[in-house]
Structures are given as C-alpha cells and as structure tokens.
C-alpha cells in the first residue's frame, strides 16, 4: 500500500511540474512599464511583420484587419482572426499588455494558448519596444465588425492544452545564425528570424510541426499540398545580394519574372522597408549555411 502511495505522489508531482512548465505564460504585469508606443515606427514594424498579409480579406484594403483568410495545414484549417480596433469583434478592448502577450508569448486575452499558425514562435524574438510601437500603430487603424470564424481542427489538435508541451519543445529564443558579425547581419537576422518570420514558410517541419533547424530555410512542402516553398539558401539560390534586395523591393527576379502567389503579398510588405533593411535581409540569406536540395 505504501508503495502505491509513493507512486501516486510521484505521479502527481510529475503532472504538477509538467503543468507548471507548460501552462500559458503571458508577459509579466510590469513588462511594458516605461515604454511609450511610436506609431510611426510601428507602421514599419507592421510591414516587416507582414500583418496585413494574413489579417486582411483578400479583396480588402491593407489597413482593415478584419481577418477571415483560411490557411490549410496538416492539422486542419486555421482562420485568421479579426485584429482590428473594433472592441467587440477585434482587439480594441484588449490592453497593450494582452496584445503584447499574444504577439510574443502566444497567450490570448483570456489566458489561453494560441495556435502557432500565428507566428509568435518568431515574434517572441522581437524587441519589446518594436512590439509596443506596432500596437500603437494598430490602434490607429479602422475597426471592422466582421465576426471571427472558428478554426476547423480535428481531435486532438483542437485541444489547446497540448500547446503547452509543444511550446516547451519548440519555442526557442536562440538565434539560428549565431555568428552575426556585423550590424548589417544582426539587422538581417532580426528581420528574417523575428519580425519577418520568413522561416515559418521556408523551413521544413518535423512530425509535430516544429521547425527543422538543421534544414534552415531549405524549402518545405506547401501546407496546402500545392507545390513546394523554395529553398532560399545559397545551395539553391544563386542570386546576388543586389538581386535579392531588388526582388524584395519590386518583385522582379534577375530573369525578369515577377513574384506570384503568397510571395507577391510578401513583396508588398518588404517593398515598404528601407533599402538598408532589404540589403540586410539579402546579406543574411548569403550568410546562413547552404541546405542541399
């Protein structure tokens, strides 16, 4: 009897420790103390982070964040939520702290885990000041009363409790490019690995949906099973840094082709960045290890 009591106590301790490690962890209550949002810089962060690409309707203006776009995946279909300033259907009633916790920690206003279809797995590397600036800019955008639609996920993927262990396994604050020896490379790393979340599409995933960092930016199957997202390491992309920067500005390739599909949406965002930022992204892509096709 004593043996089973010991086993029971041990099991409870393991479960308790697991819950403590994997429970939703919003930002501390004082995380934003002393920070004042700058909507001018926030507009640049908005473009770098690609917010409009997911949270606007396909035929809507780029500042009406009404949500509704669908994203197919191996785990079901996710629907982008309304993140406009509407207090009922959007996030207008959320505090700045709640919004920052959602963006950087993947924790909703009610304390629930958010699905990583929202790329907080990259955004958590962002500077808190940039996120506060982004929120200040979001506050200036028009409201939308478009109701949110539910995700279409099968069991067990519709159980948010599983996201705690997933975050524990796959949300990592370490930079993949460890040796960013120049300010340009540091900026490029920040734009690609954090704000731009380029890796969320261009890096393959393991069976649990975590990024395979050993094949960083080495291309991946398209989530909709239509084609493949390209390898953009030097093993497959021979463009010069100037070619890459021009593509991110205009959408034109060195062969006079133009960006299409989702990448056309990305270029709308990167085209709003500075020439220096686009050059930094190009330098980063030349610095990461090549991944064989």
- Please identify the structural class as seen in this structure: mainly alpha
**What's the β-strand tally?**
5
- Average pLDDT rating: 90
Strand order of the largest sheet: 1-2-3
What is the helical fraction, as a range of percent?
Answer: 40-55%
Rounded to the nearest angstrom, the radius of gyration is 20 Å
Largest sheet: 3 strands, antiparallel
State the end-to-end CA separation.
Answer: 59 Å
Approximate strand percentage:
under 5%
Uncertain segments: 2-17
Please count the helical segments: 12
Domain module tally: 2
Task: Walk me through this protein's architecture.
The structure is a single chain. This protein is 41% helix and 5% strand. The chain folds into two domains: 25-170; 183-287, Cytochrome Bc1 Complex, Chain D, domain 2. The protein has helices spanning 2-22, 39-49, 51-55, 96-105, 120-123, 128-138, 163-170, 183-195, 199-202, 241-250, 261-270, 275-287; strands at 70-73, 76-79, 152-153, 220-221, 228-229. By secondary structure, it is mainly α. It is globular and about 50 Å long. It is built from twelve helices and five strands. A hairpin with a 2-residue loop joins strand 1 and strand 2. The strands form two sheets. It has a three-stranded antiparallel beta sheet with strand order 1-2-3, with no helix packed on it. It has a two-stranded antiparallel sheet with strand order 4-5. Mean pLDDT is 90; it is low at 2-17. It comes from Yoonia rosea. This is Cytochrome c, mono-and diheme variants. One of its GO terms (molecular function) is electron transfer activity. Residues 37-142, 183-289 form the Cytochrome c domain.
